[in-house]
Design brief:
Length: 395
């Protein structure tokens, strides 16, 4: 291999390890004469404000200096230091060690060996959490603009990537409780640009090795067309997006119903469709809560919290979602409300998760709790309750 190609190949290994989240550390040593004070540079990944960076410790004869860089800047620096200031680079990943050594005539030699480390540094908790979705050779992350061609998460997309990983983390733990078999059908209502839909398909089909069918329903045709193209490019044969309105969707038996950030009562329509399709797992992240907020008005109730606009808003969210959770429980779902991550930095960062159970349900108790809440806040009706009543009356 040409000397330049060997150096490029070493830099490529570093990029790949970062993209694939297998990077442990890198040491630059064997200083060239041009860098007499600087003895070594130690490079390790750090997560700063949820962004993955490269931390460089410059070890001088009498002091250490530390600087943190974006991945792109860090790799550029390594490329510049290698061969000019340092004649050796030792890359440690959890898959292998790779060493490059330049002779005094600057001819490089590459050597691979078994990994010294088989775990990422355990103290780096934030980084551990970024691991659910692989970035290397990930076509959909690239097509969706989250990662670049080298599998590195782009500047400005770290929040989205973190949200996707959190979502898969939550989904994975709920899946264990849902006791589904190897064939899983999923419907994602209001799939949008598909960030979470693609990640879910990837996780189920490729990580969990399930035979999975995922359908994304989205009202905007342009997004549907875009997502279908990306699914084709990624080779995700059982991931299909269809244009439609959630309220009009007619679902066959569905195992998992997802609705993330579908606006206002579209979340209720989705939950209702999930219940009707006998979904074992229903997972939604509600968005705006207009339907209940409009009903909580002074006059119908003298509850002091509604005097303050912002608290009224928050109460509307809490009451809307509490009633949703209670209605799911009334339909036999073991329900939980958990924290999710919003990329918009709003308070709307929760998820309602319902796993179909087999136990007996105390309908009387649940409906009396719902009635009490409604009367406390002067609420005439909850949209999901109406849908379920309609269902019971077979309208
Ligand atoms: C805020 S985006 C969320 C997209 C995606 N679920 C996510 O969390 O990244 C909400 C999406 O739901 C779609 N949507 C809202 N109401 C809908 C409805 N009634 N039927 C179908 N799609 C709907 C919107 O067009 C939009 O693309």
């Amino acid at each position: 291999m040409e000397p330049k190609l060997k150096k490029d190949s070493f830099i490529g290994e570093i990029k790949e390890a970062i993209g694939n989240n297998t990077f442990v550390k890198l040491t630059l040593g064997k200083r060239a004469k041009k860098a007499p004070d600087l003895r070594n540079i130690y490079i390790r990944p750090v997560v700063i404000k949820d962004h993955l960076k490269l931390s460089f410790t410059y070890r001088y004869t009498s002091k250490d200096d530390v600087s943190n860089y974006t991945i792109e800047e860090g790799i550029k620096n390594i490329d510049e230091f290698l061969c000019k200031k340092f004649l050796s680079g030792h890359l440690f990943t959890i898959e292998k060690d790779v060493e490059i050594i330049f002779s005094h005539k600057l001819i490089p030699a590459l050597k691979e060996s078994r990994p010294t480390f088989n775990e990422l540094p355990s103290s780096d908790h934030d980084r551990e959490k970024l691991r659910f979705i692989r970035t290397k050779d990930n076509i959909y992350l690239r097509e969706l603009g989250i990662a670049n061609a080298e599998g590195i998460v782009k500047a400005g997309m770290h929040d989205k990537f973190r949200q996707i990983n959190k979502y898969i983390e939550i989904f994975g733990s709920l899946l264990k409780h849902a006791h589904l078999g190897d064939n899983i059908s999923v419907v994602d209502m209001g799939s949008g640009k598909g960030y979470l839909t693609f990640a879910l398909y990837d996780y189920l089909a490729n990580t969990m090795k399930k035979k999975v069918k995922v359908l994304g329903i989205e009202q905007r045709q342009a997004l549907v067309d875009f997502c279908n193209k990306v699914a084709e490019k990624a080779g995700f044969g059982n991931l299909v997006f269809k244009q439609g309105n959630i309220a009009d969707a007619s679902l066959e038996k569905t195992d998992v119903l997802i609705a993330l950030h579908a606006c206002d009562t579209a979340t209720d329509d989705a939950i209702y469709k999930g219940i009707k399709a006998d979904a074992s797992l229903i997972l939604c992240a509600p968005c705006c809560h207009k339907q209940i907020r409009k009903q909580i008005t002074q006059g119908k109730t003298d509850h002091p919290v509604i005097k303050f606009g912002i608290l009224k808003e928050r109460q509307a969210e809490i009451v809307t979602d509490t009633i949703r959770a209670l209605l799911l429980a009334a339909c036999g779902y073991k329900t939980n409300i958990i924290e999710f991550i919003s990329t918009e930095h709003t308070s709307k960062n929760i998820m309602i998760a319902g796993v179909k159970g087999k136990g007996k349900v105390d309908h009387k108790k649940i409906y009396s709790q719902i009635d009490k809440l409604k009367s406390q806040y002067g609420i005439e009706y909850h949209y999901l309750e109406r849908l379920l009543e309609k269902c019971e009356n077979n309208e």
